[in-house]
Fold:
Amino acid sequence: MHCDAVIFGGGIAGLWLLDELRRGGYSAILLESRALGSGQTVASQGIIHGGLKYTLSGMLTRSASNISEMPLIWRDCFAGTSQPDLSDTILRSQYCYLWRTQSLTSRLGMIGAKVGLRVAPENLAETETPPVLQGCPGTVAKLPEQVMSPPSLINNLYSRNRNRILKYDAESGCVFKFEKPGRIQQIHLIQSDSETLKLTPDNVIFTAGKGNAALRERAGLTSSAMQLRPLHMVMVRGNLPEFNGHCVDGSKTRVTITTDRNIRGETVWQIGGQVSEVGVEMEPEELINHTQQELAEVLPALSQDGLQWGTYRVDRAEQKTSGGKRPESFGIKKDGNTLTVWPTKLVLAPVVAETILPKITHTADWSDAEQERLANWSKPAVALPPWEIPGNWLTPALRRSA
Ligand SMILES: Cc1cc2nc3c(=O)[nH]c(=O)nc-3n(C[C@H](O)[C@H](O)[C@H](O)COP(=O)(O)OP(=O)(O)OC[C@H]3O[C@@H](n4cnc5c(N)ncnc54)[C@H](O)[C@@H]3O)c2cc1C
Structure:
């Protein structure tokens, strides 16, 4: 089968790109080796950032200027007034709260936060602050950054493109034939002895997050083009309010809290920010203790009685930077007919797709029989969010001591 584009990896970068290509009339498919969104997308906090995090130092950095257009694009998609129609994605909240700790540097951070943003924070009167922020020092602001539920976003994009998404076995179900490193001539998919598919791609796009390293090696390319930055996230469930927000300390976010509901309908908080960075070196119990202390300081009104705690580790996969720092924006590397993509942030998926689209030429047209073949090929599942994985929660005995 001749294809305009074969995408490897169904996180947000691959799914958004596939949707754009399909709507543009391209013969494009996406191959997923695990469950859609495994890795970063399903584990993310789902905040449609508008760049605030990157202006905390008081300057509009390149990251912030790239990202500042994104909330408006996503907002229209969630409303169903722009493509891709994401009106089936669950929105956790229309805004995030922003509050600060008492230090002078964090006050400066709040000032810096107002520089040059499309979605700027709006200060709240004391009567307007939610009960969980009672007793917090200093100004509380409301930031019109929407928060969505990543598993529902993946499902939304999956249902729009199901016929173009194929499950395959990365170890034994795929052979690349390449002319020279990065110039892939053929991809041979083997589902069973009788079920095989030979794809002749004009363009190959790796959007496999951490999996990009192995894919690049299989295409004769070096894996040193990328870096991993680990995080150790905290989760807590129980009698908690629905709350989404960042606690700012200087130019850092001390904690970032987002809320979802588990399959039993319980409220679950995901806690990132600095705790998840310092937590990389900690065992789960130590990180939970540290987070409990942090929450006692930054959310003094929150009762921590009877809560259950868990953690999960996840690596951010990015294009390599000098010194391993966070990249300023998304990364796309071209080698032969292969593009390797690292969006850096979920919100940047639209601009990533927009950058790739002009590089793809449309020459392949599929017959009805070919389309039917794709529709009938085996399909991947959607990855479970971290709070639905029992092993991420501490055992009852540990929970009690925590
Ligand atoms: C804890 C955390 C919180 C975050 N919070 C936010 C946030 O609030 N807002 C925001 O904008 N960004 C956030 N991010 C960043 C964001 O999640 C990532 O930038 C984005 O999800 C990366 O998407 P991706 O599609 O490149 O990769 P991934 O989401 O990692 O998806 C990769 C996909 O490729 C598949 N795959 C792997 N190997 C292969 C292979 N060999 N063949 C085929 N498929 C393969 C995987 O199974 C997976 O489906 C967060 C990241 C983390 C880790």
In short: Residues 94-146+228-316+394-401 form a domain with the D-Amino Acid Oxidase; Chain A, domain 2 fold (CATH 3.30.9). The first helix runs from residue 12 to 23. The radius of gyration is 22 Å. Confidence is low (pLDDT under 50) at residues 397-402.
